[in-house]
Amino acid sequence: MSAWAVFGDGAWGRALARRLAAADHTVLLVGLTASRRKLPAGVTHTTDGPAAMATCERLVFALPAAEVEQGLRALAPHCKGHHRALTTARGLTTDNHRRASEAVQALTCIRQVAVLAGAADAQALDKNQPAALVVGSPFGTWADEIQDSLVGKHLRIYTNPDAVGVELSNALAAVLAVAMGAARELAVGAATEATALTRAVAEMDRVVQGLGGRANTAHGLAGLGALTTYIFEGGGAGFQAGQAIARGETEGLADRHPELVEAATTLAARAAKQRLRAPMLGAVLGLLKGEVAASSALDALMQRAARAE
Amino acid sequence: MNPPIFQFNRHRGDIEREVVSRAVEAFEGFGSARGPRALQLALNDAAYHEIHRLERAKGREAERLSGWQKLARRIGRMDEGELRDEVRRLATWYVQDVVGHFDRRVYRFATQVLPVGLGALFNATDLGGGIPRNLKAFGDLSQRIRVEGDLPHLRALAEKGTLVVVPTHSSNLDSVVLGWSLMHAGLPPVTYGAGKNLFTNPVTGYFMRNLGAYRVDRRLRHSLYKGVLKIYSQVLLERGYHSLFFPGGTRSRSGLVEQKLKLGLLGSALAGFAERRHRGDDRPIYVVPVTINYPLVLEAETLIEDHLKEAGQARYIIEDDEFSRIGRVSHFAIKLMGMDTTMVIRYGAPLDVFGNRIDEKGRSIGPDGTVLDPGKYLERDGRPVADAGRDAEYTRQLGRRVAAAFLSETVLLPTNLLGWLLFQREKAMAPHLDLFALLRTTSGDRHDRAEICAALERLRRKLVAMEDADRVKLDPLVREGAIDELLDDAINTFGMYHTHSALERSGDSLVVRDPKLLFFYGNRLAHWTDELVEAVQP
Fold it and tell me: Above 80 in pLDDT, residue B313?
């Protein structure tokens, strides 16, 4: 049994705090304001982040990508070398377009970082739906500890030393979900959707490897797993934005989803810098910026030069 | 200044014994095996590699083959005590082969009589009529080798803790000029591992043998030897000997600033720190990235040839390069002294073994300026915990920070700018050619001087912005000199030493003579090529 501090008392923070408490850990759930919501046994709510840092070595940053850097800056003076961090943010930070683990290393002295990603969301955890997540970290002992602490009857946890690949796959899945949402709304048929999904996974794998991740990480829970979750549940910001685009509801779309636009822009730019082929990423960016209609984007993708699979 | 290396000889026997004892202990847990099985595996690994190597060896080396073959046959029948004795015997043999020596008289001689180990070369060489005029120049090496960085900070740190100097590596002269720079900067001498082949040069070999260098035999690939070597370097660090590693592992063949670092010896800095803490010794270890920036590189022609050969990467030890020809070394040194351009040794900001910055008081500080206790990185639940996987990843992270410092502390010189620019122009003129075709066919191409000046100006403007953003460093001539002056300096420098000049003047044109050399020197900028290409467009 050990002490954990979970920063962020939103759906993810609460779901993870509950799982940790169920594994007999002591959990401090840290929010910005006091909470009156009922908490499970073993979880204490607090607004005192520095005090939580002083008593816990194990830190979970369950903050949305847009709030990660701000949160880390506030906590940085209280970080010490023994702290170990787990981040859950999907996508890139909005301040400097970093992966969450990159942000932890750039803004704090914490070195042992892991990332959590995959095919389960907070709701699935709360409802005890059988699901799986992946912990990406090159720090094997820390990844094993997270695995042991979160695993349960209804939740399988896998580890993967490729934290960069896990984070990139997760960010790419969130962005490429736009294309899948648009395809669904256009009612193009199962064959077209399957084609789009297959090519999206191939593109994720290519981009992940080109940007420092390992081969096949995108084929796991963080990439293919997350993307199919969006498709099967018809949810997630990206998938729904794609559906709205296909319906022609593009007015104010970029303002409603700035994190998607920024993530797509950054990932496309990073891919271009490494001269990686990323046609779907480019198409999604065009859709989000309103530069191209969904049907035209599909036509453009289909009319590219033929090549080997 | 009374650095520990001054007392090295007094402690040498003790160091050897500690290394052997720790090596035996370490090999009782070799790979995933433990006890006698682990010792057996370590011996088998050594025997396999040595037999494989010696079967191809000639002369006295080959005579040792039968001994290894006998050992290989006996290993399976040895009991635990015999296995341990054999590992101890081999570890003793290897540590005695590796161990260095420090002679204060040689150190005094080197510091007082010869302002740089380089100078020694000239007493041993027939330089003909060049001697009187050129030797005078050696007296004032500081005019030709500029040492930069926050040297008072480093001097203070050397008193508080142990320095691990990690330089870029372009030439076999690096350790010599770096040794001089330490003396010149008032920093203590360092111990370092040098390829055994370098000790064959009679002059530099003499100094290396007597100034704390230890011998690394790169032909020996087995774990027992590598383990002894790593433990030796770690024991030296633990005992407070300031050390030097070349984390690039070997000289940069391509001229690129090294980004893929070998982490074995760098890891011993962390292991040494952890062991010190374990023993209650709180003295810090500071990692100091250094860039060595030559306007011309002694071995450039051999290095780039080697890089371009298909098998180049595998050719780890070059025994027939310019460094092995003493006349060539002296010729190079004389030319270096005669140049207007200086070479630059730049000491970067020190880091702790976890890659954190160090403040003026020698304390580790986080990105937000908070003072840290680096010992905390080794703790779990309030206690120090050994975790080899964790420490290996810490070392990889440190390696990335050192690699980043190599880029930001690289000092770009006129030859780097002109080499890069001309090579990019050649590439743009023949986009269909691959690198090898380009290097084969572009000799004789002409470039208009006025166009080169205009492009250099644009390139310089971009690099100044990068220097202002702390992304790279520029030589003053590059940053502030007139473009004509910068260009002439580069052309003159190119023409001073190499067998064939990289380029020549011809009226209002510059004529490419050796595209490989342009490629080699320009590669110093290659990391930023994409953004620089954009910046030099008219």
Answer: no
pTM of the model: 0.89
Distances in Å between the Cα of B329 and the Cα atoms of A193, B41, B110, B319 are 67, 44, 18, 14
A18 is written with which tokens? 């509950």
Say yes or no: B362 contacts chain A, CB-CB below 8 A. Answer: no
Helix axes A226-233, A237-246, angle to 10 degrees: 50
Name the token pair of B148: 């930069």
Q: B355 contacts in A (CB within 8 Å)?
A: 111
Do B473 and B411 form a contact (C-beta atoms < 8 A)?
yes
Q: Domain ranges for chain A, please list them.
A: 3-161, 164-302
The CA-atom distances, in angstroms, between A133 and each of A4, A60, A93, B435 are 19, 15, 21, 45
Neighbours of A255 (CB within 10 A): 8
**Minimal CA–CA distance to B20: which of B229, B274, B223, B221?**
B229
CB A14 within 8 Å of CB A28: no
pLDDT tens, position by position, A110-128 = 999 999 999 888 888 888 8
- Rounded Cα distance between B424 and B536, Å, is 10
C-alpha atoms less than 13 angstroms from C-alpha of B413 in its C-beta half-sphere: 25
Q: What is the dihedral of CA B189, B192, B198, B199, to 10 degrees?
A: 70
Which of A197-204's residues contact partners 24+ apart within 8 Å by CB, and which partners?
Answer: A197/A227, A197/A228, A197/A231, A199/A280, A199/A301, A200/A176, A200/A227, A200/A280, A201/A227, A202/A309, A203/A172, A203/A176, A203/A277, A203/A278, A203/A279, A203/A280, A203/A281, A204/A168, A204/A169, A204/A172, A204/A173, A204/A176
The residues, ordered by sequence, that sit 6+ positions from B359 with a Cβ below 8 Å of its Cβ are B365, B371
Are A240 and A181 in contact by the 8 Å Cβ rule? The answer is: yes
> B180: part of which helix (H) or strand (E)?
helix B174-184
Q: How far apart are the C-alpha atoms of B226 and B241, rounded to whole Å?
A: 20
Task: Give the homologous superfamily in CATH for domain A3-161.
Answer: NAD(P)-binding Rossmann-like Domain (3.40.50.720)
Tell me which residue has tokens 């998607």. A260
Cβ contact, residue pair B370, A112, below 8 Å: no
Average pLDDT estimate for B50-71: 92
The packing angle between helices A65-75 and A258-273, to 10°, is 90
Token duo for residue A1: 């049994």
Among A25, A111, A162, most B C-beta atoms within 10 A, so best to mutate, is: A111
| pLDDT tens-digit series, residues B256-311 | 899 999 888 889 999 999 999 999 999 999 999 999 999 888 778 788 887 777 54
- Using alpha carbons, list the distances in angstroms from residue A10 to A16, B155, B395: 10, 51, 35
Q: Within chain A, where are the H helices?
A: 11-22, 49-55, 65-75, 100-107, 122-126, 140-150, 163-185, 190-210, 226-233, 237-246, 253-256, 258-273, 279-288, 294-302
% helix / strand / coil in chain B, to the nearest 5? 60, 10, 30
Q: Who among B377, B393, B530 is closest to A81 (CB)?
A: B377
| ipTM entry | 0.91
Contact across the interface for A77 and B368, Cβ inside 8 Å: yes
Q: Quick check: B448 pLDDT over 70?
A: yes
Architecture of domain A164-302: Orthogonal Bundle (1.10)
Q: How far apart are CA A16 and CA A234, in angstroms?
A: 24
H or E element at residue B306:
helix B300-308
CA separation for the pair A114, A76 (Å, rounded):
17
Residues paired with residue B243 on neighbouring β-strands, in sequence order: B164, B191
**Chain B partners of A104 at a C-beta cutoff of 8 Å?**
none
How many interchain CB pairs under 8 A, A with B? 61
pLDDT tens digits for range A126-167: 888 899 999 999 999 999 999 999 999 899 999 999 999 999
Tokens of B65: 């083959």
